[in-house]
């Protein structure tokens, strides 16, 4: 497989804001190849001046694993260019969706899975804006991995001292209307398990979680379509809120 060509196709979809057919429609490829495409895709961003800022986890619910026919989570890479501020411009996204997240702040380099929880410097409630680059938001497992697990934008609220988040209630509102409610327990039963998986997958790929990086542990609810000119607030029990306005 021409990994660079596949990554260039996806990078072009991002930059041109246009959906493309699934890469596997032309020729199937396996998961290791998909991760090689993902890494090359992110390298396009790095060469344009962005910096790594963390990782995001996907397929962290049992229902999603069953739907995709997998028995492990997937992950994607985050850059500082993906971080949303108070506003998020949706004009350069294809078909954005948003979901509530539990976010971990890494305080020191993580050299083993065993030490990742002690390396957490803070926790926060947050959100992730997804945007598959594929037509109709449909993909196979290798396709979505290659597409950096549909990562587009992310944000989070104020940091809090690390704590037990195995069953924290979450509420997501759009323009003051509740659109999703759930519990952090939907994230692998405890988002700490997702944190450990992030360390495992990063180390397996020859990377370490670095100080200042964030880990998006995975969605506590299904993602919902994200409209323009909307105000989104995600609230977590004991964690305050994270807010963003779209345009």
UniProtKB/TrEMBL annotation:
The answer to keyword Transcription applying to this record is no
Indicate the segments forming the Fumarylacetoacetase-like C-terminal domain, all copies: 96-244
Highest taxon above the source species: Bacteria
**Name listed for the protein in its UniProt record:** Fumarylacetoacetate hydrolase family protein
Task: List UniProt keywords, sorted A-Z.
Answer: Hydrolase, Lyase
* GO MF annotation list: hydrolase activity
Recorded hits in InterPro entries, A to Z, give:
Fumarylacetoacetase-like_C, Fumarylacetoacetase_C_sf, Hydratase-Decarb/MhpD_sf
**Where are the membrane-spanning stretches?**
none
Record keywords: Lyase included? yes
């Amino acid at each position: 497989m021409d990994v660079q060509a596949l990554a260039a196709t996806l990078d072009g979809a991002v930059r041109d804001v246009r959906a493309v057919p699934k890469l596997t429609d032309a020729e199937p490829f396996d998961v290791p190849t998909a991760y090689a495409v993902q890494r090359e895709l992110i390298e396009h961003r790095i060469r344009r001046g962005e910096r790594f800022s963390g990782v995001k986890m996907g397929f962290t619910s049992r229902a999603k694993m069953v739907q995709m026919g997998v028995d492990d989570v997937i992950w994607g890479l985050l850059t500082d260019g993906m971080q949303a501020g108070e506003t998020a411009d949706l004009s350069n996204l294809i078909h954005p969706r948003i979901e509530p997240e539990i976010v971990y702040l890494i305080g020191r380099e993580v050299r083993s899975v065993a030490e990742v929880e002690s390396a957490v410097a803070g926790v926060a409630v947050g959100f992730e804006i997804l945007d598959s680059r594929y037509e109709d938001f449909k993909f196979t497992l290798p396709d979505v991995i290659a597409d950096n697990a549909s990562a587009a934008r992310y944000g989070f609220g104020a940091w809090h001292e690390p704590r037990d988040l195995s069953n924290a209630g979450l509420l997501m509102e759009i323009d003051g209307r509740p659109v999703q409610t759930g519990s952090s327990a939907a994230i692998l039963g405890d988002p700490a398990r997702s944190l450990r998986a992030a360390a495992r997958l990063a180390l397996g790929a020859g990377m370490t979680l670095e100080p200042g990086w964030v880990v998006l542990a995975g969605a506590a609810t299904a993602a919902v379509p994200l409209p323009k000119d909307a105000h989104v607030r995600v609230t977590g029990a004991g964690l305050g809120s994270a807010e963003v306005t779209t345009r």
